[in-house]
Amino acid sequence: MSLPSFLTMYSELVASPSVSCLDPSWDTSNKAVIDKLAGWFESLGFSVQVNELAAQRGKFNMLASYCPHGVTEGGLLLAGHTDTVPWDEGRWTRDPFKLTEADGRLYGLGSADMKGFFAFVLEALRQQDLGQLTKPIRVLATADEETSMAGARELSKFSDLKPDYAIIGEPTNMAPVIMHKGHTTECVKIIGRSGHSSNPAAGLNAIDVMHEVIGELIKVRQTMAEKYHHGGFDVPYPTMNFGHIHGGDAANRICACCELHLDTRPLPGMRLDDFYGLLHGALQPLQARMPGVIEIRSMHEPIPGYACPSDSAIVKLAEELTGHSATPANYCTEAPFVQDLGCETIIMGPGSINQAHQPDEFITLAEIAPSQQQLNQIIRRVCQA
Ligand SMILES: [Zn+2]
């Protein structure tokens, strides 16, 4: 099989549904996308490994590798996720699964975030003389980035994956992004005892307990802000936001149950263990005083913060080739997990984050040729050294 044209690959990726969603009625396997990618990379002479996720059956990660002269260490990893978010029914003015060219744009679900990136990579590789490469070039395609990042959490299953550098092709308009905060969402649930409001001592008021809990959480928030600082961010400290609270039903009943949802954004370099140590340490005295009353659980797998040193060779190369300065981002990516492979990792790809997760998602035709050229040059500069 020979590699189809850039636009054919782009269209086929968009046409293969790969929605990941916590709502099972939306959730789709990414196998169709993985199968297409595997075939295309094999046609370029890459060896391909596909792993079904242990945490999520029916979802797959793929690693395509071209290792010149059997060298497996070093080189460049280009990474991306194969899944998309669901589409807003009724808000798309076009078929989300049909790549449509109009107004100087290519519209389609995943056109920017980020199935299209794989078409860019394949095209850049087609134009490369692979025989000239001296270091490995690898392409990683993950599952379930939009929900749990389950795919990125299983990268250690690929043996011998030790690149020097990684680029995650999320849409950044080809500007290198080198840091973002992490993200956790916790639920604190207070289980009190109801009773008639005329005798508060007859029950345990969950709202009263929650008041104490929130007091402790605000202290944790202050401790984090005093202890951690990163000047690369507009908000240079870790944040904690109380986003949802609900408790009780009637004014004349002792409130038996109260639930709080809080979002935290740890800084890069702040270990998740440190955050959870602060959180649980703060609530522990209350829990000891009121056994079985206060429950804390994570509402999703936490994502750590991430930063790449700004003087890293891959940052300098990306800045040189694209003319953009490195910046922070205010969204999370798979970068902390990719970086755990031991490689300096940046986030940089065609398309704009403003179009991600939006109806009528698109990339512009004008950015196609320059982005391809920049990817091509990066591959050559890293792998042909
Ligand atoms: Zn994305």
Automatic annotation (TrEMBL):
GO MF annotation, one: metal ion binding
Organism expressing this protein natively: Aliidiomarina maris
Entry keyword annotation includes Cytoplasm: yes
Stretches assigned to the Peptidase M20 dimerisation domain: 179-282
Family: Belongs to the peptidase M20A family. ArgE subfamily.
Subcellular location: Cytoplasm
Alphabetical GO biological process terms: L-arginine biosynthetic process
Protein name: Acetylornithine deacetylase
GO cellular component, one term: cytoplasm
Classification via InterPro entries: AcOrn-deacetyl (IPR010169), ArgE/DapE_CS (IPR001261), Bact_exopeptidase_dim_dom (IPR036264), Peptidase_M20 (IPR002933), Peptidase_M20_dimer (IPR011650), Peptidase_M20A (IPR050072)
Keyword Chloroplast: no
Keyword tags: Amino-acid biosynthesis, Arginine biosynthesis, Cobalt, Cytoplasm, Hydrolase, Metal-binding, Zinc
Gene3D superfamilies recorded: 3.30.70.360, Zn peptidases
Taxonomic lineage of the native organism: Bacteria, Pseudomonadati, Pseudomonadota, Gammaproteobacteria, Alteromonadales
Pfam families membership: M20_dimer, Peptidase_M20
Transmembrane segments: none
Cofactor(s) demanded: Zn(2+)
